[in-house]
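Help! Submission page says 'invalid entity' but I think these are all valid:
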Amino acid sequence: MRLFHKLAATQILSLLHSSAAVLLSQRDLTRVVNTNYDFVIVGGGTAGNVVANRLTENQNFNVLVLEAGPRQVKLHGEAWDIPLIIWHNCSDAGILALQVPFLTATTTTQTPWDWNYTSVPQPGLNGASVGLPRGYVLGGTSSTNGMIYTRGSKADFDRYANFTGDEGWSWDNMLPYFKKSEKFTPPSDRHNTTRQFDPSVHGFDGLNSVSLPGAPTVIDDRFEVAIDQLGGEFTYNLDVNSGSMLGFGWVQATIDGPSASRSSSSSGYLAREFLLRPNLHVLVNAQVSRVISEGNRDGVPEFKTVEFRLNGGDSLFNASASKEIILSAGTINTPQVLMNSGIGSPSHLHSHGIQSVVDLPDVGENLFDHPLITLSWRVNSSGTYDDYRRNSALQDEALQTWKTTRQGVYATGASQHIGFVRVPSNSSVFANAPDPASGPGSPHFEILVSVSTLIFVAVFCLIKTYAEFPYRTTPPEGNYLSILALLSSPGDNARGSVKLNSSDPFSIPLIDTGLLADNATDLALMREAVKSVLRFASAPAWEEYIISPQDSTQPGLNATDAELDAFIRANTRSGYHIVGTSSMTRKGAGAGVVDPDLKLKRAAGLRVVDASVLPFVPAGHTQAPTYALAERAADLIKATHSP
Ligand SMILES: Cc1cc2nc3c(=O)[nH]c(=O)nc-3n(C[C@H](O)[C@H](O)[C@H](O)COP(=O)(O)OP(=O)(O)OC[C@H]3O[C@@H](n4cnc5c(N)ncnc54)[C@H](O)[C@@H]3O)c2cc1C
Ligand SMILES: *[C@@H]1O[C@H](CO)[C@@H](O)[C@H](O)[C@H]1NC(C)=O
Ligand SMILES: *[C@@H]1O[C@H](CO)[C@@H](O)[C@H](O)[C@H]1NC(C)=O
Ligand SMILES: *[C@@H]1O[C@H](CO)[C@@H](O)[C@H](O)[C@H]1NC(C)=O
Ligand SMILES: *[C@@H]1O[C@H](CO)[C@@H](O)[C@H](O)[C@H]1NC(C)=O
Ligand SMILES: *[C@@H]1O[C@H](CO)[C@@H](O)[C@H](O)[C@H]1NC(C)=O
Ligand SMILES: *[C@@H]1O[C@H](CO)[C@@H](O)[C@H](O)[C@H]1NC(C)=O
Ligand SMILES: *[C@@H]1O[C@H](CO)[C@@H](O)[C@H](O)[C@H]1NC(C)=O
Ligand SMILES: *[C@@H]1O[C@H](CO)[C@@H](O)[C@H](O)[C@H]1NC(C)=O
Ligand SMILES: *[C@@H]1O[C@H](CO)[C@@H](O)[C@H](O)[C@H]1NC(C)=O
Ligand SMILES: *[C@@H]1O[C@H](CO)[C@@H](O)[C@H](O)[C@H]1NC(C)=O
């Protein structure tokens, strides 16, 4: 027992139950290196943990997850009593930020759980560089994101099916996977949710908890009245997750209602009972540099070795996978690992002295994102969330309430009201340009309402240092309403990329978001989105509530197109919904990176399972599609390897 002297009693218990899953010393690292795993998963993020969970349902599969970030630590400073390989003493400082829904704006950037990426200067945004947070923790971006749960439209998935020639990606075939991953739970405040969602389109037995808002806000009634007053584009939609997204309704979020806690892929798919599986090893602080091919199978390079470093050290180690290596490192890091491995555009790789192994020029290309802009107003109410972002006594009180009752403001997320709008097909926007939406039922833009200054997203993009952390950027006084607009359907030319900047596999890549890069429709549709936000804010329901714009330069309904354009170019930032850098295309297609079964083209032994495989950005936020595609991927992998 000498090895385990540092462990608490609970950890020793789990050790005795399943010593195979516990590795805590140099000797155990040696074991990781010497085990021939069936599958090695690169990245314990949103998608990676889904695959790890589902594959280890089969006791004959030995699975290793390599995650670059630290593990998430449990609440109140207790360490998780689970056997995470290589014990990491994470400070508990700020961990509440990952668990308490209200604290979502404090998870990024320049925190221990973020990759701290910034884009290259964006021509569409007057040359600005934008912040691009990504989760760096077991759970990946699902542990740090805004928790909004939207699936996209039926047409988004039918377009994936059509584009890839695989009916499996159609809405009708993916809806069972959305349901499989989902555990719809009652909201924290147990309010009556009748007529707030459609139970028939949800799953109740999955591993990712979803719920409606857990605490009422001061604008709930006004929101509903505004919708009634305005009509037209502002119709009520019982459930924007039914495949028919158009209209306005309640936000569903990846919050477990009863515990009032963030649901992430690590809290759900790597819950204690799954981590105790003896055929699952999870190694944190393990950053993968590349995958290595030592020979060919069926005339193409075969990959069985994953190279990684531990705790940022200089030594490199190998892990081996006899069946498959699954890349789940996300839209930025998956293409980076591929390129580090000699998989990509040969000329780009040669320019960094990397030998080409698989010629796949689309690796890192086709990056799509959602442009996002925030408008805000000063309001006549003391009941907004602003005080909770600047008054530490109120914060202490809210935290105490949350800890003792799992109720109150801290039980709820950043936004409670959401809507999706379509510009009419006869709009002049489409007079000389194709409609970029995936279909006639898909929105062009999204509107998201928040009962405070929207530091969430808006500020992430602007802050440069930890000292400018969101809670310190709420104005010292005043109460606010923020309304965000996201361009759900960027034009086909609004594509960015991820490229290597160096031959050092651990260096930061060059990231181009392609935001507002398609001049045919991006700006015109953003203009429509801003006008729609302004129309919404002009509903009689907001009289005596909205006082004035927070910033006097914010355009009003009388603004000219030129004024709107200037405002949009100056203030648009990333919606953080990047996809497409390992795009799937038809089997046998020259373009693209993976086949519809997510196997890397022109190679053997490699699959990509994360948001990077989506060839177009869906009209909704990207985590729900990522969970669902990972569920389907796990079935595809099992089908390949089951006798
Ligand atoms: C701030 C923010 C807010 C967001 N809000 C929402 C929202 O409200 N709703 C929504 O639906 N979507 C939201 N998103 C987007 C959504 O969370 C992501 O699209 C989704 O989680 C991506 O999942 P993934 O599996 O592709 O990648 P990730 O979840 O990022 O997983 C990748 C994992 O791989 C690890 N990794 C990377 N490189 C390596 C390496 N070399 N070796 C080992 N491990 C590695 C990472 O640390 C990470 O754990 C948000 C994103 C951000 C950044
Ligand atoms: C973790 O580190 C902190 C200091 O960073 C130390 O006080 C604490 O004792 C450590 N805990 C364990 C379990 O090693
Ligand atoms: C991001 O920045 C924070 C704070 O500076 C740091 O703790 C963290 O390790 C950084 N992330 C990475 C991947 O380096
Ligand atoms: C399917 O894709 C083809 C091209 O690949 C396109 O011509 C056709 O319009 C698409 N159909 C639908 C319903 O999207
Ligand atoms: C919830 O509200 C609906 C009507 O909106 C009502 O029919 C139902 O009885 C209520 N449920 C509970 C448990 O109160
Ligand atoms: C990893 O595997 C490659 C290919 O077999 C080999 O060249 C390299 O030396 C190995 N590295 C270690 C640390 O074993
Ligand atoms: C678009 O069509 C609607 C009716 O479907 C009509 O009321 C409107 O005037 C038309 N707009 C334009 C710009 O033609
Ligand atoms: C890319 O590399 C150059 C040269 O080493 C360096 O100056 C620059 O800061 C790097 N860019 C990023 C985004 O790291
Ligand atoms: C798109 O518009 C921007 C801003 O006006 C301009 O700088 C850019 O050159 C245009 N791009 C193309 C392809 O025309
Ligand atoms: C603020 O609201 C109160 C009612 O709650 C109203 O009497 C007052 O006129 C409002 N002030 C403004 C500036 O609208
Ligand atoms: C728009 O209206 C506001 C007041 O509602 C006014 O201050 C502003 O000058 C107007 N702008 C234009 C371009 O007419």
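Support: the input was valid. A stray whitespace character was the problem, and the output above is from the cleaned input. Residues 110-112, 114-116, 136, 466 surround 2-acetamido-2-deoxy-beta-D-glucopyranose (ligand 3) (CB under 6 Å).
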